[in-house]
Amino acid sequence: MSALLREHGVATADFLKMDIEGAERAVLLEGPRDWLPRVRALQIEVHREARDKLREMERVLETAGLDCRRDTRHECTLIATARTP
């Protein structure tokens, strides 16, 4: 994600929607996370392959300074927003 944001000249993403078909674990848990503080709001659909890691993904987002919750209509969708000072 860092390279993708850099490649497209994105310093800060106001809203990032991720529907990455099962790659959630790789992006949020296994890869670099330096890009997360540059995102103000994030919506990520977590597919079956990674649902056992939902709580861990929430912790990663919260550690990056985002408030995280599950969508009430789709419990496997995480919504994270930057904390306001």
SSE arrangement, N to C: HEHEHEE
Termini gap = 25 Å
Helix content: 25-40%
Structural class: alpha+beta
Number of helices: 3
Strand order of the largest sheet: 1-2-4-3
Shape: globular
Largest sheet: 4 strands, mixed
Low-confidence stretches: none
Write down how many β-strands occur, each being a DSSP E stretch of 2 or more residues. Answer: 4
Number of domains: 1
CA-based gyration radius: 12 Å
Query: What percentage of amino acids are in beta strands?
Result: 15-25%
Q: Please, what is the average pLDDT?
A: 91
Task: Please describe what this structure looks like.
The protein is an alpha+beta fold and 85 residues long. The chain has one domain (2-82). It has 3 helices and 4 strands; from the N terminus they run αβαβαββ. A 4-stranded mixed beta sheet has the order 1-2-4-3, covered by helices on one side. Strand 3 (66-70) and strand 4 (77-82) form a beta hairpin.
